[in-house]
Amino acid sequence: MDLKELLRTQSGEILENALQSLNCAHLKSYSKSSQSENKKRLLNLLTLTEKCVVEKRLLPMKEYASQIAKERFDAGFDLNEVHTAFNSLEEEIWNRVVKNIPSDNLGEALGLISTVLGAGKEELALTYVTLAS
Fold it and tell me: Which of 12, 42, 61, 122 is most buried when burial is the number of CB atoms within 10 A of its CB?
């Protein structure tokens, strides 16, 4: 199994576990949102992550993260809360990668996920700082 196949075939489990992790974080703003709204947010992020991995492009993730930062900032979400949502998804993907990807492909798979979601988290932080100053 490679990373693209893993993201395609295990997206449901990834999404459910990331949502559970997000719920366990007890984040003020996400707790005020409905379960279905939070699930949709994570699904959008997961879908975009898969697209960026397949296309090996970061720009869509950076644009999305900037948009999300503006929306969440305006809605009163703390940067830490949104960052935690990204991390909950990344952690679940990492867990699946380590369990399912052969060791000779592990470095590339983890690198791709870290690069894609890392670019999103960086853009998220930069946009929040700009908006706050």
Answer: 61
Is the pTM of the predicted complex or chain greater than 0.85?
A: yes
Task: Report how far residue 92's alpha carbon sits from residue 35's, in angstroms, rounded to the nearest whole number.
Answer: 18
pLDDT of residue 1: 87
In contact, 122 and 58? CB cutoff 8 Å: no
Question: What is the rounded CA–CA span in Å between residue 25 and residue 29?
Answer: 11
What pLDDT band is residue 7 in, cutting at 50, 70 and 90?
Answer: very high
Helical segments of the chain, H only: 3-9, 11-24, 28-32, 35-55, 59-74, 79-100, 103-132
Residue 94: pLDDT band with limits 50, 70, 90: very high
The average pLDDT across 122-133 equals: 97
Residue 78 burial class via C-beta count within 10 angstroms: exposed 0-12, middle 13-18, buried 19 and up: middle
In angstroms, the CA 81 to CA 72 distance is 9
b (16+ CB within 10 A) / e for 11-38 = beebbebbbebbeeeebeebeeeeeeeb
